[in-house]
Design brief:
Layout (H helix, E strand, L loop, with lengths): L2 H29 L16 H24 L9 H5 L2 H17 L5 H16 L6 H26 L6
Helix pairs in contact: 1-2, 4-5, 5-6
Length: about 160
């Protein structure tokens, strides 16, 4: 089997998973209370941001599926879902996210927890051909900027107090 078929198959399965996950998020965000009796508007409803994120996940998943479909036909008999899901990058992503959600949030200020999470994520997934100093610089910069922007947007646009 060629590398292109493996990539196409991965893109089709991965894209389908993201479309399904995005659809689940959209459906659940539509089921959330809209607080119309309290005068809530579209942008202040609790399901607005999750619904937008779900829609973006669906769109990007569909693009990924289209990319896989354009790369070639996919043999249906050779699908290995466990091999596609359980690889080093997925496991690292799950572990970093778990540490962020259960170990950092609530124990550190939100901005610091977010900066550390993003810096660790970028540092781990930075291209290996870059020098360690450049990877570290990119990770620290991405972490600091992400933490700053997310904190400001949530506090001053969405009016949400962060932990």
């Amino acid at each position: 089997m060629t590398e292109g078929v493996n990539t196409a198959r991965s893109d089709l399965w991965g894209g389908a998973g993201w479309v399904g996950f995005g659809l689940l998020i959209v459906v659940e965000s539509l089921r959330m209370d809209r607080f119309k009796a309290m005068g809530a508007e579209l942008y202040t409803m609790p399901g607005f941001v999750p619904g937008m994120i779900g829609g973006v996940l669906m769109l990007l998943g569909a693009i990924l599926m289209l990319r896989g479909w354009r790369r070639g036909s996919v043999p249906h008999t050779e699908v290995e879902p466990a091999g596609l899901l359980l690889n080093r990058r997925v496991i690292a992503t799950l572990l970093l996210t778990l540490v962020y959600a259960t170990g950092l949030i609530g124990r550190l200020p939100f901005w610091l927890a977010t900066a550390l999470f993003v810096a660790a994520f970028v540092g781990y997934f930075a291209p290996p051909e870059k020098t360690p100093a450049r990877r570290l610089m990119a990770a620290v910069l991405a972490g600091a900027l992400t933490a700053l922007i997310v904190t400001l947007v949530f506090q001053y646009v969405f009016l949400v107090r962060l932990p």
